[in-house]
Amino acid sequence: MAPVKVFGLALTNAARVMVCLEEVGAEYEVVNMDLQAMEHKSPEHLARNPFGQIPAFQDGDVVLFESRAICKYVLRKYKSAEADLLREGDLKDAAMVDVWTEVEAHTYHPAISPIVYECLLKPTMLGIPTNDKVVEESLEKLKKVLDVYEARLANHKYLAGDFVSFADINHFPYTFPFMATPHASLFDSYPNVKAWWERLMARPSMNKLGADMAAAIKAA
Amino acid sequence: MAPVKVFGLALTNAARVMVCLEEVGAEYEVVNMDLQAMEHKSPEHLARNPFGQIPAFQDGDVVLFESRAICKYVLRKYKSAEADLLREGDLKDAAMVDVWTEVEAHTYHPAISPIVYECLLKPTMLGIPTNDKVVEESLEKLKKVLDVYEARLANHKYLAGDFVSFADINHFPYTFPFMATPHASLFDSYPNVKAWWERLMARPSMNKLGADMAAAIKAA
Known about the structure:
The structure is a homodimer. Helix content of chain A is 58%, strand content 7%.
């Protein structure tokens, strides 16, 4: 059987999908998209994702987009006793995974992603100067989020409880590059968050994707 | 057994939870939160949701926040042959439900919600004038989203496929009040979207919550 395909780069949201594929040990092929050649707006890609964004995903006749939806598909399809990151067999565990997955999407991501864009992607990949006002406002938002995370992680080893889940690894795509910005030391003020992040980065999946992402940023 | 509790008003994101509870026929109690008295920032509510937002939800010792996570809990717990709105038993169907649920969260919602705030909640409930520039920019974004929806709904009765799902009813909390703004006629240019919306509004759950939401806006 042909391996599943991820359309995109080992950067931002596509990296979320790749971390999940690594977690479950699935074979996959990355189809690099040339964003400067506008390949993501080609008719071929619009058939995969009508909004013309990356990542997209293909598994035979199943064609998906939206990174968090793709991740759930991957985590369900390749679920095992060792890799059950959604815990859908347990009503309460699954709910806690969902709650903190939604927190990442609606609260953490909007605070951290502008800092990554402004401090890393804009100057490095796009040659555009950083907007300091956006960075400052986003740092203020991020501190409020990290206050909540710090309290949560004082009582639980991971966000959804004392088990690692999609809610945690879902934080990889922007937290990893944030650690390459001049603001990385912010996490030093949040020891529980910092220990959580180090625990996650010790996972082979995140370690591997971290190396791939660093290479993708360097090559850009 | 005590009915489950929803903390919030039959408005915006809390209405998403209530529609799901109606869909599955669950008994529930709405605990109204007095937002002007800052009840959502009280220690009691912060114990339910550390970010101090509504809705929150309680089912015995299960306490949840984030409306879409609460909805999934409700739809799993009360799932039946007649009401299976997540379709988690089918890998492909579940993935399509997730894809279009994520589209609502990341693409549709950011386009439509500012229009509802600016044209309805601000002048009616908060006594603040509408920012026309925000409305115009959001309308342009919404048109691009509706172009994609129109094409999707030309080939499928509902967003995830030919079955109604959470991906559809998830659109209720902002689409219903949008229809009370001066821009409601925008949907006339999208006949497939309009027919989809009318099909959804004919559902008893959405019909009931529509009446509750209209009353909540009027009372505010």
